[in-house]
Write a structure and sequence with these properties.
The protein folds into two domains: 163 residues, TorD-like; 115 residues, no CATH class. It contains 17 helices and no strands. By secondary structure, the protein is mainly alpha-helical. The chain starts with a helix and ends with a helix.
């Protein structure tokens, strides 16, 4: 796949991520999607269930903005590019990679180096986790879309090579705090920060936990729903989260394809470490009745 067609493919895939208004029938045909995603399907997957932002996946708070967004904005400013309002959104990152690829194909060594940095540090470090969950949770057209994004980023990684060292966001990522070191609300929020636990938890996952544990599900933001589950049966919920961490650790193929073996190994180690810590905490809570 040459650079020019790949840049066009990146922009087409970004358009699907942007929503139905940007997804034309011609684009659906070109990408060989089974059909265009509906507005409801797009909103459910990429607004309510998953959050296609580097800051959510790489920031220690697991929230929009903060250091995760600042890293991407600083990268763009270093290239003399004015960052968009949401520079760490997948749409913006795919467009940036396409633009740099075009400049590199035209002979710019600086653009080629920048494209490699963008791929390694700001996309490959997290996007495989998002794409794997999109395949699991999305409607048919969006599952196909996620696979295509993985394919094109894997081709980029093959051309540019896997990173020799871990991206800074992963090297510097703090783990999950001890419950005694944070308030209940803060610790619950940390459970939802992917870079702290390795887990990418959607609303659908919390609803699944409630069903499997026969607990009452509370509708609201994920932190509210998770805290409500913990308040009902902390030991059971912590045990479920540990099992979920192990389950997600078995599905890191897209991470390795888009970020390289080192990045996949980091996410696996974080997930397995989280699973062990949650298992131990669940046993302590069950034995002593200690609230989480």
């Amino acid at each position: 796949m040459s650079a020019a067609p790949r840049s066009g493919l990146l922009r087409a895939l970004a358009a699907v991520a942007a929503g139905p208004d940007a997804t034309s029938p011609a684009l659906v045909t070109a990408l060989e999607l089974p059909r265009a995603p509906t507005s409801a399907e797009h909103t459910d997957l990429l607004v309510f269930q998953l959050h296609p932002y580097a800051s959510v996946h790489l920031g220690p708070e697991g929230m929009l903005g903060g250091v995760g967004r600042d890293r991407v904005a600083g990268f763009l400013r270093a290239l003399d590019v004015t960052p968009p309002s949401e520079p760490d959104h997948l749409v913006a990152l795919l467009h940036a990679l396409a633009d740099l690829g075009d400049l590199a194909a035209a002979g710019s060594d600086r653009a080629g180096h920048a494209a490699t940095v963008l791929l390694h540090e700001h996309l490959g470090s997290w996007v495989g986790r998002l794409l794997a969950r999109a395949v699991e949770l999305g409607a048919g057209p969006l599952r196909v879309w996620a696979g295509l994004v993985a394919d094109v980023l894997a081709a980029e990684l093959t051309d540019r090579g896997a990173p020799e060292v871990l991206p800074p966001a992963l090297r510097e990522a703090p783990p999950l705090s001890e419950p005694s070191e944070a308030s209940a609300a803060d610790w619950t929020a940390e459970l939802l920060a992917p870079v702290r636990t390795g887990l990418v938890l959607a609303r659908a996952d919390l609803a699944r936990a409630a069903r499997e544990l026969d607990l009452g599900a509370r509708v609201g933001e994920r932190a509210f729903s998770l805290r409500a589950l913990l308040d009902q049966d902390a030991a059971a919920v912590l045990g479920w989260l540990g099992r979920e961490a192990r389950r997600q650790a078995e599905d890191l193929g897209m991470v390795e394809r888009t970020g390289g073996p080192g990045v996949a190994g980091w996410w696996r180690h974080r997930l397995e470490g989280t699973a062990g810590r949650l298992d131990a905490l669940a046993a302590t809570v069950a034995a002593r009745g200690v609230p989480a």
